[in-house]
Automatic annotation (TrEMBL):
InterPro entries linked: AP_endonuc_2, AP_endonuc_F2_Zn_BS, Xyl_isomerase-like_sf, Xyl_isomerase-like_TIM-brl
Source organism of the structure: Allomeiothermus silvanus (strain ATCC 700542 / DSM 9946 / NBRC 106475 / NCIMB 13440 / VI-R2) (Thermus silvanus)
Designated name of the protein: Apurinic endonuclease Apn1
Required cofactor names: Zn(2+)
UniProt EC number: 3.1.21.2
UniProt domain Xylose isomerase-like TIM barrel: residue ranges: 22-273
UniProt-listed Gene3D superfamilies: Divalent-metal-dependent TIM barrel enzymes (3.20.20.150)
Enzyme class: hydrolase
Gene Ontology terms describing biological process: base-excision repair
DNA repair in keyword set: yes
């Protein structure tokens, strides 16, 4: 019995492009995944190759229509001004358009730095430019580790940004911990605060990452599960009954050893969730 959908951020490099991510998800036994639609560190867009869309859609369908997300470029700054703001909107709209073509449900973006009002306006303009309707992909603003002028480290700021809009939120556990939310001590309380400020129904995606940096350090550096400063407390996030059905994506270091460790840890946690739930129902 599985309470969540889970997977990694997968690569689209190689001849298969985005379809290669589906093949890797199948090989690893994942129940969801996240990808970039283009290089995350370049403004250059990427055209979907001949047959790539069809292979991607068919592959997901054969695996039970795995839930998926696109992560927007790291260069996007929706709080900027001038040319950078315009380029950010265009790049995000490109990802939203690709998500719609591929049938991907979620697109996540870092809010950026600058004015909160411009972030909300920029996100809504990207949705308009991509002509995303009510049934199109959902755009999510990700909480940040904070530091400098970065917006989004506080849940109340994200709540303001999405209020009265179709926008949602992606909750990153490493970022929240680095921003000062005590996930290592009181994960239940943090999830309750997320619900009170945002509403869990508006948080379809969880980035499940441990943290290299200390609590409140504002250091955005992910660690493998149980190998960072949050540690075993992340199990309570995975097992939280109100997070069932969410997509959990690990943005951890990739490689056979790292993947094996993170999957074994997460699957052990999921088994313990089931045991706890069965015990409570007896």
């Amino acid at each position: 019995m599985q309470s969540i959908h889970y997977g990694f951020h997968l690569s689209i490099a190689g001849k298969q492009g985005v379809a290669g991510a589906v093949a890797e998800a199948q090989r690893l036994g994942l129940s969801g995944f996240q990808i970039f639609a283009k290089s995350p560190r370049s403004w250059k867009t990427r055209n979907l190759g001949p047959g790539e869309v069809e292979r991607f859609r068919a592959g997901r369908e054969n695996l039970g229509h795995l839930p998926a997300a696109i992560h927007a470029s790291y260069l996007v700054n929706l709080g900027a001004t001038g040319e950078l703001w315009e380029k950010s909107i265009f790049s995000l709209a490109d990802d939203l358009t690709k998500a719609q073509v591929l049938g991907i449900e979620l697109v996540v973006v870092h809010p950026g730095s600058g004015e909160k009002k411009r972030i909300r306006e920029g996100a809504l303009r990207a949705l308009e430019l991509a002509q995303i309707g009510k049934r199109g992909p959902k755009l999510l603003l990700e909480n940040t580790a904070g530091g400098g002028e970065r917006i989004g480290s506080r849940l109340e700021d994200l709540a303001w940004l999405i209020e009265g809009t179709p926008l949602g939120v992606c909750f990153d556990t490493c970022h929240a911990f680095a921003a000062g939310y005590p996930l290592h001590l009181e994960p239940e309380r943090v999830i309750e605060e997320l619900d009170q400020e945002i509403g869990l129904e508006r948080v379809p995606l969880i980035h499940l990452n441990d943290s290299v940096g200390a609590w409140g350090s504002h250091i955005d550096q992910h660690a493998n599960l149980r190998q960072g400063r949050i540690g075993e407390a992340l199990r309570e996030v995975v097992c939280h009954p109100r997070l069932r059905g969410k997509l959990f994506v690990m943005e951890t270091e990739r490689g056979e050893t790292h993947d094996a460790h993170n999957l074994a840890t997460l699957r052990r946690w999921l088994e313990s969730c089931v045991s706890l739930r069965e015990s409570s129902e007896e």
